[in-house]
Amino acid sequence: MAISTEALPERHGLDYRALPDEVLHSDTPMVLRGVVADWPMVQAARQSAEAAIDYVAGFERADAPPVVATVGPPDIKGRFFYNEDLSAFNFRQEKVPLDVALKTLRKYLPDPAPPAIYLASTTIDTWLPGFRAANDVPMGEREALASIWIGNRTRIAAHQDVPDNLACVVAGRRRVTLFPPDQLRNLYIGPIEFTPAGQPISLVDFAAPDLERFPRFAEAQRHALGAELEPGDAVLIPSMWWHHMEGLEPFNVLVNYWWRQTPKWMDTPMNALMLALLTVRDLPPHQRETWREVFRHYVFEAGEETAGHMSESARRVLGQLDDDRARDLRARLLNRLNR
After folding, report:
1. In the chain, which ranges are E strands?
2. Distance, first Cα to last Cα, the chain
3. Source organism's superkingdom (predicted)?
């Protein structure tokens, strides 16, 4: 039995051409019902899956490079995951022309048990020039990355993304399940450097949770938020919220926008986690406690008292970082790591 969730908060009547900052800067998720309902892509999808496929195909660039298609056999039931011992994946990836992928999805529309097919995070402007002229959310100065996700009935395991995310359902229906960032320990996350799509994922099968193997997931369920999204709906997923995405129709398309509320020079905190595993985790307990205080002082509670006793020029990396200082710091780190 699929997990139960509390309904995600909803907003209605918003204009995608002028989404308020209170929405785009929100630190809690929400569904924006019907926000892109008048996009031509959505109108085509409401006619039929075939009309939606034709609409997407009409923008394909003639000289576009192949797309990466993630494909799994029918018996995985759309769940892209690991094998039994987490040593490999239950799918393969292949490069194919976009029109071939779309024709394959069209072929399997009437099949009750098709192979799972997913074109994940494909940059719209690279493969579908012109699409955004009629189907786009203006993001102002946020410089968001716009991607399109195309597939059939697939299940993408719960994972986190560092950027904020506005995900717009433009064909088919999707079920989204979200958990607050603090549910990390209750979601039973798999390997962090060997992942199906770049981000660590929950090992729990949301279609059939095994609470004997994953007992703390019962606590995670008490914090779960969910919604079913129709064409034209969008969901705002703030940074680091866990999210599980499931396509519910034989043809589904999602357009999403990722952006960060930080300067460009900032690296992903995942790099810091990897380095901490290398340098901190296996220290003797009393040394780990010492480094906990060091991180508290310099990172998590950094303020004027951290380096206020020095002039600004003397603070160097303890002062305000910018492009030049970040570049210098990155070079120093690479030099230390490559010793």
Report:
1. 6-7, 10-12, 30-33, 67-72, 92-96, 116-123, 145-151, 155-159, 164-171, 174-179, 225-229, 234-237, 242-247, 252-259
2. 52
3. Bacteria
DSSP state of 190: -
0.90 exceeded by pTM? yes
Distance CA(242)–CA(158), nearest Å, equals: 6
Amino acid at 122: T
Count of positions (residues) in the chain: 339
Please give the domain boundaries of the chain with CATH numbers for all domains: 6-259 (2.60.120.650), 269-337 (no CATH)
SS3 106: helix
pLDDT at position 51 is: 98
Beta strands in 180-241, from DSSP E residues, in sequence order: 225-229, 234-237
pLDDT digits (tens, 9 = 90+) for 225-239: 999 999 999 999 999
In the 8-state DSSP scheme, what is residue 298?
Answer: I
Q: Which residue bears the tokens 């085509």?
A: 44
Distances (CA, A) of 174 to 15, 67, 85: 21, 22, 29
Give start and end residues of each alpha helix (H) in the chain: 21-24, 40-47, 49-57, 98-107, 124-127, 131-134, 217-221, 269-279, 285-295, 304-307, 312-315, 323-337
Distance of CA 276 to the CA centre of its chain: 23
* Backbone torsions φ then ψ of 181, nearest 5 degrees: -55, -30
Tokens of 29: 């998720």
Neighbours of 273 (CB within 10 A): 14
What DSSP designation does 35 have? T
